[in-house]
Design a protein that fits this description.
The protein has 261 residues and is of the alpha+beta class. Helix 1 packs antiparallel against helix 2 and helix 6 packs across helix 7. The longest helix has 47 residues.
């Protein structure tokens, strides 16, 4: 008797909802084909627009997940399955995961913004988070630098994007500044000529913008000379060392006594 009643109820449910079920299955099959077509189209569009390779899988996965979610909601609505309970469970799960992974999401968001806005690129030299190095990898969650002394530096993208970033490579040239302290007894024109000749003899110093050598300040016991030259970012340290050594040697050879000697 109970089995017969169950059969009757199932039969009545099919009579009432059978058409909805057929339409729902048809929409599901058609929707799956449309999503497959759209995923191929999205992938091709991202390749043509040169979206960063690290971002393509994420955007594709996000778009496909959103399409599948919309399709499921549409089919559930057509068939007549209540969506309110499902939405409540999904919302609670999303909040719990969001709280647990808040730091990870910050790094992820920072990585997406770095790859989209491009404040720096691979091979650029940057200062960030108190670190200096050449960018050797930009990942979704972190950026990897190689320091001048060959240390690998890994910086979370959340912190990196929300702080000051100094890109010393982007403009193509970098100014090298340092000072020389000489006594008041030194002939200014002679000192400037010796320093200018020394600068012009050092490889790696760019001729434009113009080299600048001059008095920057008068101190109680000495005069401070400032030296400003332009170099390629990759040559910065080598030129700085060579230039300082050359200027000291040439000043001594020219009979100019340096302070403290």
């Amino acid at each position: 008797m109970k089995l017969h009643d169950l059969y009757i109820e199932a039969y009545q449910w099919l009579i009432i909802n059978g058409l909805k079920l057929i339409i729902g299955v048809a929409v599901l099959l058609i929707g799956l084909k449309i999503i497959k077509f759209l995923s191929t189209t999205i992938r091709n569009r991202m390749s043509k627009r040169e979206v960063h390779s690290s971002l393509q899988p994420f955007f594709l996965s996000l778009a496909i997940t959103a399409l599948y979610t919309l399709l499921i909601i549409l089919v559930m609505t057509i068939v007549g399955i209540p969506f309110s309970s499902f939405a409540t469970i999904l919302g609670g799960f999303t909040v719990a995961v969001g709280l647990a992974l808040s730091g990870t999401f910050q790094n992820f968001a920072g990585g997406v913004l770095i790859l989209l806005l491009k404040p720096f690129g691979l091979e650029d030299s940057i200062f960030a988070q108190g670190q200096e190095g050449k960018v050797i990898s930009i990942q979704i969650f972190y950026t990897v630098l190689l320091s001048p002394d060959n240390k690998t530096i890994i910086i979370p993208n959340g912190k990196l994007f929300n702080e000051v970033i100094v890109n010393v490579t982007r403009e193509g040239k970098r100014r090298l500044d340092f000072e020389v302290k000489l006594g008041y007894y030194v002939d200014v024109d002679q000192a400037k000529k010796i320093m200018m000749d020394a600068i012009n003899s050092v490889p790696g110093v760019l001729k434009t913008p113009a080299i600048r050598v001059g008095i920057i300040a008068f101190e109680v016991e000495h005069i401070r000379y400032t030296i400003n030259v332009w170099v390629n970012p990759a040559d910065f340290l080598n030129v700085k060392i060579a230039l300082q050594e050359k200027i000291i040697k040439d000043l001594k050879a020219g009979g100019i006594r340096l302070l403290g000697t």
